[in-house]
Every structure is written in C-alpha cells, then in structure tokens.
Amino acid sequence: MIKTAIGNNIDCQTLKIKCSEIINESKLIESPYNLDCLIEDKYLVISIDDFGEDNLTKIIDLIRQVINEYQIIDDFLIRSFYDVNKIFFCSNNQTKDNIINDKFETVNNLKYSSFNFSVGFFIFLFGLLSLGTIGTIYYFTRPCVLGNCELITETETSISRLLKNQSQGLDEIKIKNIQLGLIEGINKLKRVPRWSKYYQESNILISEYKNKIDDLDKLLNALVLVNNAQTLTKNLPLSLDEWNRVKSFLNDAIKIINSIKVEELNQFKTEKLISYQNELTTVNNNILQEKKANDLLNQAKDLAVVIDNEAKEVKSLVDLENIGKKWQTSIQKVELISPQTTAYLEKEEILNNYLQKLIKVQNQINQEKNALNIKNKAQEKIKLATESQKNNQWTKAVSLWKEAITLFKKIPSEVLLRKEINKLESNANKQLEIATSELKQAIIREEIKTKLKEICNKEEVMCSFNVSKENIKVFLTDKYLQKIASASAITNLTNNKEEKNQIITHIDQVEKNYQYLSSKYKLPVEIYNPQRQLIMIYNNPF
C-alpha cells in the first residue's frame, strides 16, 4: 500500500487509474500509451512511455499533481516503461543514485574472463577507492551533518508563517494548503540522516507535523459534518429523525473541534465552537417545536376520533353543545401548530376539515335551539288553549290550537326533539278536533238560544230557557200560564169561538216551534212549569 500524510492508504491500482484519468483529460496524448505503478524496495515507481520532450515534462507534472493531491509521503520516481535505468524524475536525488547503481548488472563477466589477474585486481582496487571516496563525500554532504541545521530552522519558520497566514478565515482550501505545507516540511526533514545530531530533533518535528496534519484532517471532517447539517436544514421542514441527524452532525463536529490541539487554530476553534453551539441551540429549539407540533397534531386527531364516535350517540342539545366545544378544542390545537414543522404541512387540510365539521355541529345546535324555542312557544299556546277550553272559550281555544300546530310544522323533521314534538303535535290535533267540535256545538247552542229568545220574548216574556249539550230546557213563566188560563176561561164562558181558535193556534204554534228545535238540532226539548216540573218533552232525533 502507498502511504499518505493524512493517514489514508491507497493502492497502486487507484493511483494508476487516477493518473490515467488526468492524462486523458489533458488530451496531450491521442494514441494508446503504457502506464504502470508498482512498489520496489519500499519505493513508489511509476513507469510511462517516452512521450517526447515537450509532452513528457507536462505529463510528469500531471503525475506529480496527482501524487500531491493524494498527499503521498513515500519516495517516488517516474521512469521509462521500457528501460528501467532511464529515470525521468525522482523525489529524492539520493534515491535516484542508489536505484541507478542497483540496476547496473555485470553481464559481461564471461566476456572478460581472459583478462589477467593483475588487471582485474587493479580494477577492484580502483573501484573500492572510488566507492570509499564517494561514500565519504555522501556522508558529509547530507543535510545537518556539519555545522548548524538551517533546514530545521527554515522549516519551522516556514510552517509557522504558513499557519499564521492561512489560519485567518480558515476554510477547506486553506486547510489543505496547510496540510500540503506540512507534508512538504516533513519531506524536507526526512532528508536529515540518522548520523546527524539533529536527527532526533527532526523526528520530533515530523511527529508534531503529522499530528497537526491529523488534526487538520479531523477539522476537515468536522467541516463536512457541519456542511451536512447545514445542507439538511436548507429543505425545511424536517422530521424529528432528520433534526436528530442534524443535531448528531453538530455534536460530532463540536466534539472533533474540541479534540484539535493545534495552538495556532485556537481562535478559529473558539469562533467555530460559538457558532456551532448557537446552531445547536437553534436545532434543539426546532426539535422541541417539532415535538410540540406533532403532539398537538396527534392530540387533535385523537380528539377528532372521539368526537366522531360520540356524534353517533347524540341524544340531546347538551350532547351537541359538548361536541361543538370539543371541535373548538381540537381546532385550537391545530391552530397552535407552528410553521416550518412537518405537522404544519397537514395543518390547512385538517383545519378546513375540522372547521366544516364544527360549522355543521353549530348549524345543528342552532336548529335544535330554534326547534326548542318554537316548541316552547307552542307549549305556551297549548297552555292558553287549555285554559280557554276550561272557560268554554272555544273560538279562542280553536285559534290557539291552530297556532300551536302551525308552530310545530315549522320544526324540521331531523331535530332531536322530533319524537316529543310529534307527540305534542298529535295531542294538539286531537284537542283541535275536540275544540272545533265544541265550538260547533257552542255555535249551535247560541243559535238555539237566539231562536228561543224570539219564541220566549215575542210579545211578552213567555219563558226562560237553558241550552246544554244534552237537551233544551224551557221554563214557562207563571204570568204566561195565568194569561193562557184566564183567556181560556173567558172563551169558555163567552163561547167566543174566534178567541178560542186564536188560543189553540197560539199553543199549536208554540208546540211546532219546540218540535222544530228538537228536529233541527237533534236535542230533546223539555218543557217545565214555573215550579220546575217537567210537563212535556219534544224529542225528534231524526
């Protein structure tokens, strides 16, 4: 595996694909080409075709760009695909020299076997001397071997300046720039050889810079988490699960930032922690608001189910009024649902539905109240009609009964009072029939009385009378009877036939009048003397 500065390992296949992609995108090479990646003796080796001097430089730059992007810290070289000794670029000159030397193969031993021993020995001594000279030069010319180690000082200064300049208005690009700077510093410090007295100091700095790289990587992760949270909150409203995800992103980001130990980022950490804590407070408020909205919606829905069940068992105006109050309570709960909540998406539809049901109930209540008001008015008419009947005021009674029945007719058929109203209306109709009948009889009695007045008071008071539903009673006056008796006695003495015929005609006419009354009104006419003794009955029922 290939090591990177940020702790992520990648394989050669991944690097090979990425290099091919960026070369293809550059359109520098149109024909197929060879490119390979492998690790030899802990060195990363990239083999490419000989593309020509102009294109080769550009392609090498592209490959280096990929290596920098992946932040690879292994030493690497770029060589010819066909000639392993032909190296185009190497990240470390020392490595390049060693590899080139390692690739020299003594394939001509047999060819030179005829040389004499002295020539071979001379060559051996010359090679040994050359190797010693080159080794000595290499040993003392490595960084930080002789004198002060300016490399460490320069690296520290460069990193310090980088952190100071880039930490202002820190963002993803600046963080990656700092990481690249730290990687470059690490690569410089790796040049300090083990035999240098500054080797341990350089290793401490390398470890410190790697920790900073790790912290910056954490910071990038934190920024990604915050970005995820902010992306989610762009599409409001969010469900409770989504708000909890946002909360989790922010909590994780805050935890990561608190773990970062890069002193140069303290001010940035403080600013971000305050910002993210404020965002977290807003998220917590939104979670509470979402829970409250969901609770209100669920309470309203549950109450609506209860109301619908109770509506099936309504028996009185009180039941209807209780249902109306419960619909108002349910509507109030829906109206309290805040915007920017998932429950708010259902608010308008549910509110319209519940309002329609409330209006329906209120209409029923008004109808029932109106029916009750009409019923009470009708009952007042019934009370007055009953009193009129007791006083034999049949005309008034009939009028009142008719008014009561008319009021009952105004009450809709679907009201809850319908059974009671039907009973009252039925009774009123019966009473109207009775009152109407009594009124007719009363009119007849008045008619009889009128005729009797004509009979009894024609010339003088002949009689008095009493008319009831059962009969007609006529009471002859004493004066009238005495007059008839006196006239009869005189006619008998004078034998005046004309006067006698007049008396007989009078009596006959009176009897005919009584018989006419009995016949017309189907009532017996009872004739009484002044002593209230029955002396005659005229009864003609047919």
Characterise the protein shown here:
It is a single chain. The protein is α/β, with parallel strands linked by helices and 542 residues long. Helices cover 67% and strands 7% of the residues. The chain folds into four domains: 12-105, no CATH class; 150-288, no CATH class; 314-444; 457-538, no CATH class. It has 15 helices and eight strands. The chain starts with 11 loop residues before the first helix and ends with a strand. 22% of the residues are buried.
Strands, helices and their partners?
Elements lengths: L11 H15 L8 E6 L2 E6 L4 H17 L6 E5 L6 E4 L2 H10 L14 H25 L8 H17 L5 H18 L9 H34 L7 H20 L6 H46 L5 H19 L8 H47 L3 H16 L8 H39 L6 E5 L4 E5 L1 H17 L2 H25 L3 E4 L5 E5 L4
